[in-house]
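Something for you to look into today, if you have time. What I am after is a single protein written out in full by you. I want to see for myself how the chain folds. Could you add the entry underneath, on a fresh line?
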Amino acid sequence: MALVSPKVLLSDLINQTNSVPSQYIRPVSDRPNLDEVDISNVSIPLIDLSGIDGPNRPEVVKAIGLACQTDGQESWDPRTTGGRDVEGWREFFRQPESERMKSYSDDPNKLNRLSTSFNVRTEKVSNWRDFLRLHCFPLEDFIHEWPSNPPSFREVVGEYSKKARELSLKLMEAISESLGLHRDHMVKALGKQAQHMAVNYYPPCPQPELTYGLPGHKDPNALTLLLQDGVSGLQVLRNGKWVAVNPIPNTFVINIGDQIQVLSNDRYKSVLHRAVVNCDRERLSVPTFYCPSRDALIEPAKELVDQEHPLVYRSFTYAEYFDKFWNRGLRTESCLDMFKAPDA
């Protein structure tokens, strides 16, 4: 049972205290050890996507493939509206509690909702985060369930979600090509597809060394586009050491998720990452998750299975995978081991 009280957001709870409430304090063995993080501005691959539809496409595809073999890719897309979206979404969290709580639910089956931590119904230690979860595809099926305030919220977020989907599709095609597959292989493998986003709000924390915004985890979906404000907090594990990924204006951070790892038969690996908090500034991040439909059958591409690369994973539906991921929560980095092929 969760220790956090139902219908209490972190951003409202901290107004009542100057210390970290006990339900947010991690055991000593499970703290972020912020002094050991590499903050030397180590960069992940930076790729200009403006040439993805032109004569330079082969070079862009090759660069994306190389980035997928490391720990993520940071990509620039000149068509996005960038930081203006982040500021628009921040307005939602600055509304009075009475307005925000109209969207609150701790029911994980509710597709569009405001909540806190990760899964307050099952977790024992809470995460230093509030989040607004929005399903985005097909947009017309969900937008009427989104918050109606601030007044421009649905228009701004709806337009952004369309552009994020366009970019996701282009990236999925490029990833397929980089593996030597047909251009549409990954997109078709995801079935009817789904898309949702989480607007993550991390308030300032009086003792950031005691807790996480989100602990180390790998995304269960196929591809994640992360839009950040200018506050650092994202970290990735590189060569056994946590490395800070500092925000770069007008970029997305692109994370490979578990489903790409399966479809590529382990050629590309999902990214282990976490979010930490700080004592001075609030942080806002907006990950958009591009997912298979729940009935999509996920399995390694047959063209990527041979004597040198034996089958790593059995076939499974995305519903089967996601349900196990959600029930296990963020207590483990990934649950892909549960889907290994019998002889793997």
Notes: The first strand starts at residue 46 and ends at 48. The CA atoms of residues 93 and 100 lie 7 Å apart. Residues 1-6, 78-83 have pLDDT under 50 and may be disordered.
